[in-house]
Amino acid sequence: MAWLHTWSGLLLGWLLVAIFITGTSAYFRDEISFWMAPELHHSVASEAAPRLAWEQLNATAPDARDWLIALPHERHPAVELRWRPDTPDAQENRRRRGERAEMDATTGELLEPRASRGGGFLYRFHFELYGVPRIWARWLVCVATMFMLVAIVSGVITHKKIFKDFFTFRPGKGQRSWLDAHNATAVLALPFHFMITYSGLLIFMVMLMPWGMNVAYEDGWRGFFNEVFPREEQAANAGAPAPLVDDIQPLVARTEAAFGQPARYIEVEWPNRDNALIRITTAKEAAITDRRRGGNPSLSFEGTSGRLLKTDPGAGADDGFAARTYNLFVNLHLARFADPATRWLFFLFGVVGSAMACTGMLLWVSKRTQQLRGKTPGFNLRLVNGLNMASITGLLAAMAVYFAANRLLPAALETRESWEIRAFLLAWLATLIHALWRPHRRGWLEQLAALAALWLAVPVINLATTDSHLFSAIAWRHGALAAFDLVCLGMAAGAGYAFWRVAGHKPARKPARAARARRAAAGESS
């Protein structure tokens, strides 16, 4: 079991560190995306937002096939507008998202945020990597996740005194200190580590084990999902031209009163036609066993008269035990049910999980370095140490570069979002080259110093380029903006502390060697 724990944790450990770190950031991907769109920071949610969005879409896309208005909420205070043109291409491809725009929730002005993948890039990288065919990337991540699950189970079996060791930490003891840190971070959030790993595999169960669905349904797993999550078919053809209701506000108020929750989405099928349909969906009290998609209460109205057609109380309450169990694990993994305090708790658990993976890999190097007894490390050990450096300090440095590039690249740059990602990848590649060139203590010191400087630079660059920085009222009105800068400063402080500890560390001499040194010194003095 010790052998299994060691090698299952090491072979794909570098990928697991990247999965853990980017996955941890994904708990705040909406906040990261909002920070990376400073053009939206002046928007403030208002009661007039539905009416303003209604007027804006009537002026911008009156003959579209459908509209979608995403109303502002605590994690995104601007209004998101989507519409699908009534074109043959849009009719043939129902998954096509069509056009998209952001609107100020107070003034109704269309905003032009800079092109950026925002927190969505880090979220997608967490389970799809980048530049790799999607299906192969997901299989690779699932294999790495299975290795992680094996490492967790074998680690619990191997460390018979793991809970006792949790309360023991001996700093400055080299390999012993790394083992103590690894044990402590493993036990501190052990239920979280098991849950996040197992649920990650469960999310991809259709890809990993589709055989039952393929046998039971003629269309395989697609047939299963078409039965469990049937789509409401949209009217195939546009009706005759006819104006929509003048004011959407009364319908929004009626929906909110019916369910006691704020409206979140307004959908319109065939706007400005006599067969137009308006569907207003509200938020609902988050439950840990909710379906991953859909299921929120809604009212449907006739588009031209505003007459109520249908009341949908929401789905999910009648789900069976198996479905609710699946929803439980998926929602725990994605933290979709979480309020801000719970999201921060999950974020801290993710940090602990990242530290567990990092200390495990550093422990492997420390153990084999001590076995050298002063000899020069071989190629394999230098390679592992370099990969450790690139996967830990290198990835964190690349993330800081990604955020800095968001502020420094020209807003009008063509394919700007791709250049942000290129900056991330090029910075990561640079740290890998540096780590393989200097895979020793000096390399760690140089990367830690660069890491501290880069994370410190992010809020400084934000201060110089926007008016929603740490010292502005806008940042504190949207607390996520201020929190982002504070986390950057915390990252810089953590990297600086690590630099100070590594720079001041002196390898402990073994007792026998220390005794010989004392006897030699005593002989010389006599």
From TrEMBL:
Signal peptide residue numbers: none
Biased composition (Basic and acidic residues): 82-103
Transmembrane parts of this sequence: 136-157, 186-211, 344-365, 386-405, 421-437, 444-464, 476-500
Keywords from the named record: Membrane, Transmembrane, Transmembrane helix
Region (Disordered): 82-106
Pfam entry (one): PepSY_TM
UniProt protein name: PepSY domain-containing protein
Source organism: Alloalcanivorax profundimaris
